Amino acid sequence: xxxxxxxxxxxxxxxxxxxxxxxxxxxxxxxxxxxxxxxxxxxxxxxxxxxxxxxxxxxxxxxxxxxxxxxxxxxxxxxxxxxxxxxxxxxxxxxxxxxxxxxxxxxxxxxxxxxxxxxxxxxxxxxxxxxxxxxxxxxxxxxxxxxxxxxxxxxxxxxxxxxxxxxxxxxxxxxxxxxxxxxxxxxxxxxxxxxxxxxxxxxxxxxxxxxxxxxxxxxxxxxxxxxxxxxxxxxxxxxxxxxxxxxxxxxxxxxxxxxxxxxxxxxxxxxxxxxxxxxxxxxxxxxxxxxxxxxxxxxxxxxxxxxxxxxxxxxxxxxxxxxxxxxxxxxxxxxxxxxxxxxxxxxxxx
Amino acid sequence: xxxxxxxxxxxxxxxxxxxxxxxxxxxxxxxxxxxxxxxxxxxxxxxxxxxxxxxxxxxxxxxxxxxxxxxxxxxxxxxxxxxxxxxxxxxxxxxxxxxxxxxxxxxxxxxxxxxxxxxxxxxxxxxxxxxxxxxxxxxxxxxxxxxxxxxxxxxxxxxxxxxxxxxxxxxxxxxxxxxxxxxxxxxxxxxxxxxxxxxxxxxxxxxxxxxxxxxxxxxxxxxxxxxxxxxxxxxxxxxxxxxxxxxxxxxxxxxxxxxxxxxxxxxxxxxxxxxxxxxxxxxxxxxxxxxxxxxxxxxxxxxxxxxxxxxxxxxxxxxxxxxxxxxxxxxxxxxxxxxxxxxxxxxxxx
Lengths: 350, 350
Fold this sequence. Notes:
The structure is a homodimer.
Chain A lengths: L17 H11 L18 E4 L2 E8 L5 E2 L2 E2 H15 L2 E13 L4 H17 L4 E9 L8 E10 L2 H8 L18 E4 L5 H11 L15 H10 L2 E5 L5 H13 L2 E5 L7 H10 L13 E4 L4 H9 L8 E7 L5 E4 L5 E3 L13
Parallel strand pairs in A: 5-6, 10-13
Antiparallel strand pairs in A: 1-2, 2-7, 3-4, 5-7, 8-11, 8-12, 9-11, 10-12, 13-14
Helix pairs in contact in A: 2-3, 4-6, 6-9
C-alpha cells in the first residue's frame, strides 16, 4: 500500500454521510461474506433481518452526555428501539455494553442507568444482557454506550399487506418505495442536533432548546395499524437530507419535497441561521420518515396527530419516477437538489 | 447522596471480578425490569436467552490492539462466538459496532476488519449489521469494537438430554452443576492475559508468547456430540479462578481442583512468576471450562484431544456438596481456597 492510500480516519468517516458510505462499501463490505438474509449487511440499512428476527446495533458517543431532553443512556435505548421499529420490527430485548473511563463519578453512572432503565421499563423492552468495561482516564473522555436491539416482525405488518395496494413487504426496507408514495415526517426536524450543538456552544435560545429523543413505539403502531406504510427510517446522523437520499437511491426513484411543509421549530430555524447549519442536515432522535401509499397517507397523518410523538407530523413530499435524487421545492418557488451531507455538521450527536 | 456514596469508578469495577459483580448487582439489576427469559440479565451469565435465541454482547478495549496471536477485531469476533457457544447456542450472526479515534490509520483499520472477517467467514457466522462512529483524537486512544452475537439453540443440546443421566437442560447455564460432575478445561490457561501483559511490559519470553484466541465451534460441537455437558463457560476476565467460583456460587456447590492437573504452558508459568501474577487469575480467549457428567467426562476428554483447540484438554477437578467455594489441592499436598480475583490483574485484556 502506498502512503496516499493509507490516509487517516476523519470525523466525516463516522458522520453518516457520503464519506461514511464510501468507507463502509469500499473497506468493510468486500471483506465479509454476506449473511444472505432478506435485509443483510449489504443493504446498509440501520438494522438487518435474520429469519424473523431484526437486529440493530449502535455505539453511542454523544457529547455532552447529559443534555436538555435526554442523556447518553436514554438516547442509546431510544435510538436502538427506533432502529428496530424502522425496519418493521417490534423490539423484544436489548443488550447494553458500557465502556467507562476510570474516575467517572458513580452518581453520573447511576443517572445514565436510571434514565436508560426508565425507557426500557416504560416500553417493556427488557435489557437481557450487558457488559461493563473500564479503561484508563487518559484513554477515553466520556462513557460509550453500545446497545443492540432484537426484534420480531411487527404483528401489524401482516394486516398491512393488503392495504398497501396489493404490494407485499415482509419488512419496511429503504428500498420499498414506489412512485406516488407520500413522504411523511412524524414531527419537527433538527431538534436533537441543534440541541447538542447549542449546548456545546453555550447558546440558550431562551430555554426552548430540547432534544426530541423518544422511543417511537406508539407512532409506529399507529402508522402500521392504518396500513400502507412501505418504508420507514429514523433520520439520525445526516438528518432528513440523508434519509431522503437513502430512500431515493436504494429505491432507484426520485423524491420531490415541498420545503414549506417541513415542520421546523422556530428556535431550531434560528439556531440553524445563527450557526450556519441547515436543520435538514442534523440528526433527530424521535422522528420517523415514512413512505406511505397515496390512498392511506392522509389517514396515517390523521392518526399520527393523535399520538404523543406524532402531533406535528406532516406530508412533506412524494416519490416520483422522472427525477434523480431528492429535489426541494423552495419556499420562494425555486427548486434545488437536496444533497447527501458530506458528513453530519455536528459530530458526536448520538 | 453523600460524598462517600459518590465514589469514582475504578479499573476493578470493569475487571470481571468481585467488584464488578457488586457494581452490576447493586447499581444495574435493581433498575431494570427482568426480561423473564430462561436465562436473563439477573443470571449474570455472559449471554442471555430470549425464547430460542441466545444473545451476548461485549465491548472490546484490548490494548495493544495488535498482539501475538490476534488483534482487537478477531478477538471481538472470537469472544462473542464463544459466549454464544458457552450457553449452548450456535452462533448465526453478529453485529459489529466500532468507535474509532480521528486520525487512526486506515491501514490499521483494514487489518482489524480483515482479521475479523476471516474468523467470521471461516466459521460461517456472518456480520449482519454494523455501526461506525468517529470521535476526536483527544477523546479516545484506540478503537473500541463492540460485537453482539445472536445464536440459536445448538441442535446437539437435544441429544444431550438423555446422556446427561436423566437431567434436562435447555441451556448450559452456570447454575446447572451437580455433585460428581467433572470439571474439564479445554486447554492451557493464562496464555492470553500473559501475552497482553508481556507485550505491554516488553518481555519477549524467547518468542513463545502467543494468545490462545480461537473461536471454539469445533470444541463445543465435539463436547456436545459426546454428551453429558451440564455447563460451559469461557474463562475470560478473572480467568479460571473467576469461572470456577461463578460455577460454584451459582450452583450452590463446591469445586475441588487438583492444581497439578491444570494445563499451563511453561512460558506462562515463568511470566507469572516474573510478574507476580497467578495464571489462574488472567483471561483466556480460546478456552472453555466444562462441567460434565462423570459417566461422560473421559469420553468428552478423549474426543476433545482430537480437536485443533482442545488438544491439551484436561480433567482438573470435581463438583462436591460438602465444600464451600473452590478449593485447590496444591502440588505440595496442601489445600487452599481459590478466591474470586478482586479484579483482573491485567486491565484491558479484551
